[in-house]
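note to self: dont lose this again. the chain is below, predicted strucutre after it. 107 aa total, dont forget to put it in the shared folder this time
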Amino acid sequence: TNQPDRDLQMPQNPFQPLVFVTGKGGTGKSTVAAALGLASAQAGRRTLVAETHNHTDVLAILGARLGKVHEEKQVRDGLHHVSIDSDAVLSEYLSDQLPGPMAAVVR
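---
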């Protein structure tokens, strides 16, 4: 019989909320994302603010030093940041998932 691994524990809440901040340029998205991230971390939640297109505006708002693209950086207790280069991620995914010559065609 298949016995479940008794050492494997389910998190208390496996359905953690995701919050997306979107909108037109110059509308305060980064400010809102920084405020939400900070409030969430201060409430005791493990929080990750992810920016796309190599942006690091949230880091600047929080007064943190810039990190490397795709490298998670702890900003404060419970608050982390990562900047994602979406073009590089797509290219990496295609290279990983498609056979060599096909990946070059799709790029």
